[in-house]
Every structure is written in C-alpha cells, then in structure tokens.
Design goal:
Blueprint lengths: L1 H32 L5 H19 L2 H18 L1 H22 L6 E11 L4 E3 L2 E13 L3 E3 L3 E17 L4 E15 L2 E13 L9 E17 L1
Parallel strand pairs: 1-3, 2-4, 3-5, 5-8, 6-8
Antiparallel strand pairs: 6-7
Protein name: Cell wall-active antibiotics response LiaF-like C-terminal domain-containing protein
Keywords: Membrane, Transmembrane, Transmembrane helix
InterPro entries: LiaF-like_C (IPR024425), LiaF_C (IPR047793)
Length: about 230
C-alpha cells in the first residue's frame, strides 16, 4: 500500500510539473505573438553575439560591456519579448529535466550562473542546469562518474560554454543554438539555427559515457577532446 501511495504521489508530482511547464510555454508564446521584432531587437541580439565572441577571443571586458548594452536594449524596449523567451526556455527545461532526472537535487535554475567544474576531482552525476545568462567551464578530466552513463542537460538563454573531454571517455552531444557558434569536436557551426548531433567513435565501448544535451538561444560553445 505504501509503494502504491508513493507511486501515486510521483505521478501527481510529474503531472503538476508538466502543467507548470505548459503554462510557462503558453504564456511565453502569447507574449511572443503580441510582440513585434524591430530594428532595436535585432541590434540587441547582434550586440550580445559580438559580446560573447569578444569574451571568448580577446577582450572580455569589452565583450561583457556589449552583452550588457544588448540586454539593456532588450529589456528597455522589448521586455515582453525577453520575458517570453525566458518563459518558453524554462518551460521546455522543466519538461526535459523531469524526463531525465527524478531527483530534484540534480536540477538547478538561476538567472545568472557561473559554473567551474574540474580544477580538482569531482563527482560527475546526472544534472540539469538552466540559466538566463551563464558561463560554464567544465573539465571532465578529473571527473569521477557516479554511474557508467551520465547525462548533462545545459539549457538557457545566453551562454559561454567550454567543455574539455578526455579522449578515453565516450561522448554524445546534441546541441541546438539559435544564434551563435558551436565548435564540437571536429565540427564547427556558426550563424543562425545551428544544430549538431555528434558522438565520439568510442562512445558505445567506453567505460564512461557522457551525454550532453545543450540548448540555448544565444551561445558560444566549445567542446574539445584532449
């Protein structure tokens, strides 16, 4: 009887989470349908993209300034657009993370996030991270996997993402970026509507398998095999 009650609570919790996700997506679509894309919206997106590029390549300070200006323009004249994007992204994140992870402790949501994993040994576990603006530096060289196959869901609005993967580790990547640049192993995509699906040749036979599910509106992604 106790197990049945627990299962019932789990199903009820999953339904509630799904309903929350659908409400977020619905409100976001409604706001988006009532918004008009204009010159300043496009300018803001261009400034944010250039800012991300400068942060990665040569001038972090200038890059953050450009990103800040772009965000101010978006928030100033297009608050409903920005809110719509955030709500839709968060709604899809709820759906995806609940499909993959049952433990709430593995799910992290924040407006601004700076993740740095890998300077010392750390536990690699199934995790989902969502943020509006994020900087994620992940080195899997010293990672101690909790199980043979681990899934990381990285999702949000704007991100600068760097991941280092040792060559003996099996890696599978599904990446979707609307605006930006993605360098994943030997593949490089830039511009608009970039989607990449790739895995290392040793993925099926490796002792440790890592699946990366990446989805951002604007991002600069660099995944290296070393």
């Amino acid at each position: 009887m106790g197990n049945e009650d627990g299962a019932g609570k789990d199903r009820k919790g999953n339904r509630n989470d799904r309903n929350v996700a659908l409400v977020l997506i619905g409100v976001g679509i409604f706001l988006l349908s009532n918004n008009h894309w204009g010159f300043f919206t496009v300018l803001a997106i261009v400034l944010i993209f250039i800012g991300i590029h400068k942060v990665r390549k040569s001038s972090p300070r200038k890059g953050y300034i450009l990103m800040g200006i772009g965000l101010v323009i978006l928030l100033g004249g297009n608050f409903s657009l920005m809110l719509a994007i955030v709500l839709i992204s968060l709604g899809f994140f709820y759906i995806r993370s609940k499909q993959l992870h049952r433990a709430e402790s593995y799910v992290k949501k924040s407006l601004i996030e700076s993740v740095r994993w890998g300077k010392e040994p750390w536990v690699l576990r199934n995790s989902s991270i969502w943020n509006v603006v994020g900087e994620l530096k992940i080195d899997l060289t010293y990672a101690i996997p909790e199980e043979k196959q681990v899934t990381l869901v990285l999702q949000g609005v704007i991100a600068d993402l760097d991941i280092i993967v040792p060559e003996d580790m099996g890696l599978s990547v599904t990446s979707s970026v609307i605006f930006g640049e993605a360098t994943i192993g030997p593949n490089k995509e830039s511009g608009i509507l970039n989607k990449t699906e790739w895995q290392t040749p040793n993925f099926e036979t490796a002792d440790t398998q890592v699946k990366l599910l990446i989805s951002y509106i604007i991002a600069d992604i660099d995944i290296k095999i070393v």
